[in-house]
Amino acid sequence: MKIASARVIVTCPGRNFVTLVIETDQGVTGIGDATLNGRELAVASYLTDHVIPCLIGRDPSQIEDIWQYLYRGAYWRRGPVGMTAIAAVDTALWDIKGKVCGQPLYQLLGGKSRERVLVYGHANGADLHSTVEAVGRYIEMGYHAIRAQSGIPGIDKAYGVGRGDTYYEPADARLPTETVWDTAKYLDFAPRLFDKLREAYGFGPQLLHDVHHRLTPNEAAQLGKSLEPHRLFWMEDATPAENQEAFRHIRRHTTTPLAVGEVFNTIWDCKQLIEEQLIDYIRATVVHAGGITHLRRIADFAAMYQVRTGSHGATDLSPVCMGAALHFDTWVPNFGIQEYMRHTEETDAVFPHDYRFEDGHLICGESPGHGVTIDEALAAKYPYNPMCLPVARLSDGTMWNW
Ligand code: EZ4
Ligand code: CO
User: Fold this and answer.
1) Does ligand 1 have an atom closer than 6 angstroms to the CB of 361?
2) Where would you tag: which of 75, 127, 221, 358 has the fewest CB atoms within 10 A of its CB?
3) CB 40 near ligand 1, within 6 Å
């Protein structure tokens, strides 16, 4: 069997998605997510201009060799654009292999380690009261694990707060929206939010929180300490992690579990964090970390240090990524949790899939491959709509981490 053609589809059913479609000379089609929020066309070009010409005529069963060819063969290693493109190829090839074998992807990885995948949903509100209510609605919907983000008094446009009650989409403008960050106000507010949440709902539901790279290591240590009584499932991205050593200080001072890695692309981004056991959960995901082939390598390495997976799953990761991630999660022995923000009906219609939500869990389907397809005619009705992620500044104008 040979790869006969490949093409990139960019569509915007409410938000932008980039999808790679690979077709074999025997009529088998596989698809992979290639969405990099706010930088979509860079990956589309990387695929169309540089990767697809190298794929034509190759044997699609040689997933590992094609991965190595694209990684080593670019000479320029790592980075979000290149690794997202490689992930798209890898995911599409696993999809093809599943279809050729007539097996769901989790079977090719080694079979089921669990029947269903624990997911966490996103509750958010404009203020403390409405966030407490939003968490209650997620409990009513059956979620066992809920991320809580709230508007913060004195901070305009805090991270993670949507316009409606259910969805938030941070990429919201043609040019980056400017937001102003205030660490002191946040550090004062965050423990009060979790006081109220535990008071209202007890310790039954798992609660998570995303700091979204806003703190210094010492501030993160302080926050982690102050949240210890609330027993979070995790505190996410407490400080930027380019410098992995920075987490030593946080780790030394708090037992609040730490999660990092949604912006990571390779095992090298998390090697030290994992081998020094500086984190509890690694959030690398199929689409941004080199596909199933590379994520499996990261997860196996993490397992040696009792670090568990907690893959990124915001709405900017398409249903194609979610489908592949759920097969991965169903197999991976050191599974922790999977992030799950529901997609809109428009998005679900463009990407028909066979995974389903039940009692706070997602269950992957049994159809061959990863179980997600694309309705190309429908996708063509939603042209690309360029959108940027916001930026954050301190009140004196200094650029900060969004
Ligand atoms: O801001 O995916 O945990 N989830 C997150 C996300 C990210 C977006 C960026 O594109 O931090 O909401
Ligand atoms: Co995050």
Assistant:
1) no
2) 75
3) no
